[in-house]
Fold Phosphonate transport system permease protein.
Amino acid sequence: MNAIDKQLQLQPNRRMSYIMTMIILSLLFIWSVTAIHFENVSASGTKIAKNIFVGLLNPDWSLIMNVTTEGIPYLLIETMAIAFLGTIVGALLAIPLAFLSASTIVPKPVAFIVRFLLIMIRTIPAIVYGLMFIRVTGPGPFAGVLTMSLTSIGMLSKLYVDVIEDLDKSILESMEAIGCTLMEKIRFGIWPQLTALFTSIVIYRFDMNLRDATVLGLVGAGGIGAPLIFAMNSYKWSEVGAILLGLVVLILLVEYVSNRARTKLVKG
């Protein structure tokens, strides 16, 4: 009876919490809707929207078939190369940082300091890093690779740490009991278990970097983003449609391949 009484006492509290949550969410939704203003939509804006829609449905096929450095195929390959190289560099640099921020591997003060550093890295958006690296290296793909590498370090380290700390600790305790060093525990007790999971995480991050590389191109960090913003500023909507069509095809292809690869890694 005591358990039933407690359950009955908890139900009104849960109902009140649910009601308060719904009220707060409703107020936030109403407040957000007030930010929408339709009076700024003019006749010229409607015409421009129509031109954008028509241009997207009628892409410039000459750009798609252009195999020079100014064509969409080359720019897509450059964008993918920026994302791929940035992901690989970031993935390699994130491994030691992940182990140094895992409290099950290193002392807690060391793990706290490294985690704080990684949080600082993740706090700054990728486009801000891109603008900073452009000032250092100048516009071009190199700035994009540096940006992708740095942003990948922050996120991959966090995901690596989650995997490391979820491992079976009995293996580490057994190795510590027989006098294994820190490097031996990592090399023979941890790394063989992490290879497949780490690879799956890297593939997932590559998907994200491919989209970020396009955005970085808007600020001059190489790839297809720069031609996209130029075409938009010039109101060449057929070129915009061609570029977006190429991006959609590339992302769908990469998404399919990466999903298949992650599935095989998890099952295998």
